[in-house]
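Hi Y.,

Following your request, here is the sequence exactly as I used it, all 169 residues.
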Amino acid sequence: MGTLNTDVRRRGRLLKEALRPPRRTGRADSARPPEDRAAAPGRRPPKKTVAVETTVPRAPRLVENPVFVLAPVRSGSTLLRMLLDSHSRIRAPHESHLRSVEVGLTPGFSERSMRELDLDRTELEHLLWDRVLHRELERSAKDVLVDKTPGNVWVWERLRYAWPRGPAS
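Below is the corresponding structure, written out as tokens. Let me know if you'd prefer a different format.
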């Protein structure tokens, strides 16, 4: 009987905690501006669109006109992706999360050698993204590739720069 009472009390305590209004934290960082709080260690940076910063010419792409569907989470975009993927000429793979695929250059020799090849970190990332999409398109033997990653809304400017001749042009 003691175990049952302990379990009931525990569930009651958890329910009470769940229904309690949120507590204010007395931490000093809550008084700081949002920009400073976002830079605090252990916190994710605020989501914002990323401007394209590149100093080299754009390299040709293997996938000329990929389609990027910009849709919020839980809006039915997965159903749309599945419908598009069922088409004989359209490949709509699972979300690719291209914005999290990054290239790192070691300062010094690798930066200089890439500069000699007219490549910088941004353009290398775009080439990598293009190669990933091209590989998926080749594996499917279809003509058009559609990516519907919801996070693409935060990098739409980079996507537009990487593929300027996209369908929306």
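DSSP finds six helices and three strands in the chain.

Thanks again,
Q.
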